[in-house]
Amino acid sequence: MKLLICIDDTDSLDKSISTGRIAEIIIDEIEKEHLGKCEAVTRHQLLRHEDIPFTSHNSSMCFRASIDGCNYEKVVKKTIQLLYQYQAAGSDPGLCVVKEEELDNPELLISYGYSAQEKILTKEEAYSLATKLKIHLTEHGGTGLGVIGALAGAGLRLSGEDGEFKGTVKLGKEGTLVSIRDLEEYPFIDEVRMLNGDPMDRGKPVILGAKYKTILRNGKAIFLIDDAPEQGENYYRSCTKKEIRSYGR
């Protein structure tokens, strides 16, 4: 059984522990207790608006887990336990768990995810869709408004065309030169793409910046590069976080 597990609104401004870190703790516990194997966490940016209460960026965190069906209830129970254990005081956590193989209309969930990036949604809408699609959606403190982002994040992860993988790829220090082939052989990179969509000159080395990430597109972990005119025509560079977050789907 494949699950999408998404959490939202578990942290606070002091960032004692982030929502992304809680998602990683949940992954660690699922695997430590041999309940299943999990993929990396993705961050999904939702609408930022003055009428939407959120801690800092209004983003949700999602990951995919492959489990035996008999472990489903144990996984949900463990996830809820960890949410209560690690959530920040005053947060409004929401949890969404999707059984992918049992999802009759995945496009409805994906559409909801994209809608959460464009307009203000309500808890009632979230629960209505979750009931219709038979998705586990629960709130675990505060106002429970995190259910909106949790459901949306699951839809965005399901699309395979949104979000960035949490953390940075560990390839080398700033200024390190790597080949495109080396990038493609790295375990957590599925594909290298130019930021502007142009074909790559595979003979050019890539200069690593201070921080670099992979994004989720076409169901793959994509590493973005761009021209490095300040270094001359013979080099590419890794893209910045700002460039990565402005990259379209």
Plain-language structure description:
With 249 residues, the protein is an alpha+beta fold. It folds into two domains: 2-164, Alpha-Beta Plaits; 168-245, no CATH class. It contains seven helices and 13 strands. The chain has helices at 19-32, 72-86, 106-115, 123-133, 146-159, 180-185, 241-245, and strands spanning 2-8, 36-38, 42-45, 59-67, 94-99, 136-139, 164-165, 177-178, 191-194, 206-207, 214-217, 220-227, 236-238. Strands 1, 2, 3, 4, 5, 6 and 7 form a seven-stranded antiparallel β-sheet that branches. Strands 8, 9, 10, 11, 12 and 13 form a six-stranded mixed β-sheet that branches. β11 (214-217) and β12 form a beta hairpin. The mean pLDDT is 90.
Task: Put the structure in a nutshell.
This protein is α+β, with helices and mostly antiparallel strands and 249 residues long. It has seven helices and 13 strands. The protein folds into two domains: 163 residues, Alpha-Beta Plaits (2-Layer Sandwich), CATH 3.30.70.2200; 78 residues, no CATH class.
